[in-house]
Structure formats: structure tokens, C-alpha cells
Specification:
Helix content is about 40%, strand content about 10%. Helix 5 packs across helix 6 and helix 8 packs parallel to helix 9. It has a single domain, classed as TIM Barrel. Helix 8 links the parallel strand 5 and strand 6. The chain has about 240 residues and is of the alpha/beta class. It starts with a helix and ends in a 9-residue tail after the last strand. The strands form 2 sheets. Strands 1, 2, 3, 5, 6 and 7 form a 6-stranded parallel β-sheet that branches. A two-stranded parallel sheet has the order 4-8. It binds nickel (II) ion (NI).
């Protein structure tokens, strides 16, 4: 299913642009991992894309790690090829609003606009609209949840990478707090976070974790629209 989705995204992306693709659909297909049977974790990267996201993609792709990017629409508009490359490599793209506003201060119409503008930018870049949403600052209310019209995916491991720009500290926090089924919050807009990713992958791989996208973390279940999800710890039965 994922292979087919990615392939159609590739086709759509290539039809809509003259940029040459580099990834192949074969390399883009995520590993078949059943997170009900093995230890899974979802790395999530918020607020990009920025130029350094390309370095992060090399780190992830070299290690065959799939992740999820919660992208800001206005950044997608500036750097669509990075989002396209991420999707081609099998990463999931999620919606993180148009300009990272606190949506709890906006009307329903404005919240919808924040999401739909970002949907359009991502679709133009990848051929596919994001199916999950993460509220900026994790801030939501009934209006935001309803207007989002899709699942809200937040996190269970907060690395505070935006506050502590120290790769060793970020690696330590992740390694000390991550449990099977967790969703880890990271930000690819900080160089120190990208610097930490090889160490995060090494530490969690040594503990037997599989790195999956948000959709894979919950599969075969589908997340409910308008509800906030923080992790899938309950799914893992050793
Ligand atoms: Ni954010």
C-alpha cells in the first residue's frame, strides 16, 4: 500500500515539475514492520523545511530510517523540492499549519485556511495531501480540533531540543525516556538537533527499536479525525 502511494506521488510530482527525481520507488518503500509485534518508535521533525533538512534526509536515508515531517506551509512554498525528496524517500509529510500561528486564537475559518493552504503547498510538492495534523505549540481547542478535519498527532517524548541546543543532551533525553510506541518531538530547524540524529538512531537501534512513520506506528488502525493522539504505547505486547 505504501509503495503504491509513494509511486503515485512520484508520478504526480514528476508530471508537475521539470526537476529530476533522484530516489526510486523501490528504495522509497518502507520496511514491512508490524508495530504490534516489534518495538517501534516514530521520529517526528517539525517546523521545516529549511536548507539543513537536506542534511537530515541524508542522515535518515543512509540509515534506512523513516520518519514524519510536520511541515509549515510557508516553508514548503519556499523549498518544495526538499519536501518532495522527503516524500520520495518514504517519509510521511504532516501538516503543521501555514505560519505556525497559535491556532487557539483564530476563528474556525482562519484555522481551516491555515490547514488548506498548507495542504495545497504539500500537494504541489509531493502529489499528496497530508492526512495528519500537529498543532503549533501543541495548542488546540474544540474549534481547532474540529476545523482540522483529521487526526491531531502530538508527542510523548519532548526533547526540548529548541531550548537546549546540545546534541549530547538531546540524545540522552531520548535514550532515557523513549518507550515502545512513543512519538518523539524534534525540530529540523535547529542544527544541533540534526547533529543529534545519528546518535539517537544508534542508541535506539541498539535497544531493538524500529523507526517508522506515524501511519506505520498505528497500522493497521486508523487514527480518529479531530482527536489528539500522543503515542501508541498500548499496542506493543512483548
Ligand atoms: Ni512547531
Amino acid at each position: 500500500m505504501h509503495r503504491r502511494l509513494v509511486t503515485s506521488a512520484v508520478t504526480a510530482a514528476l508530471c508537475g515539475t521539470t526537476l529530476a527525481g533522484t530516489a526510486t520507488s523501490a528504495s522509497a518503500a518502507p520496511q514491512a514492520v508490524d508495530c504490534r509485534k516489534v518495538k517501534c518508535v516514530a521520529l517526528t521533525f517539525d517546523d521545516g523545511p529549511v536548507a539543513d533538512t537536506q542534511r537530515l534526509l541524508r542522515v535518515l536515508n543512509d540509515r534506512k530510517v523513516r520518519s514524519t515531517f510536520y511541515v509549515v506551509g510557508q516553508n514548503v512554498q519556499k523549498k518544495p523540492s526538499i519536501v518532495r525528496d522527503a516524500a520520495l524517500a518514504g517519509h510521511q509529510i504532516g501538516n503543521h499549519s501555514w505560519d505556525h500561528a497559535d491556532l487557539t486564537k483564530l476563528s474556525a475559518a482562519k484555522v481551516k485556511s491555515q490547514l488548506s493552504r498548507t495542504d495545497t503547498a504539500v500537494k504541489q510538492a509531493t502529489g499528496k495531501k497530508p492526512t495528519t495534523f500537529r498543532a503549533p505549540y501543541g495548542a488546540h481547542n474544540a474549534t481547532v480540533r474540529s476545523a482540522a478535519g483529521r487526526p491531531l498527532v502530538h508527542w510523548s517524548v519532548d526533547t526540548l531540543d529548541w531550548k537546549y541546543r546540545d546534541p549530547a543532551r538531546i540524545i540522552k533525553t531520548v535514550n532515557q525516556t523513549t518507550k515502545p510506541g512513543d512519538i518523539i518531538l524534534l525540530h529540523d530547524i535547529h542544527r544541533t538537533t540534526v547533529d543529534a540524529v545519528p546518535g539517537i538512531i544508534k542508541a535506539l537501534k541498539a535497544r531493538g527499536f524500529h523507526f517508522v512513520t506515524v501511519d506505520q506506528l498505528f497500522a493497521p488502525a486508523k487514527l480518529p479525525s479531530g482527536k489528539v493522539t500522543y503515542h501508541n504505547r498500548a499496542a506493543y505486547r512483548p
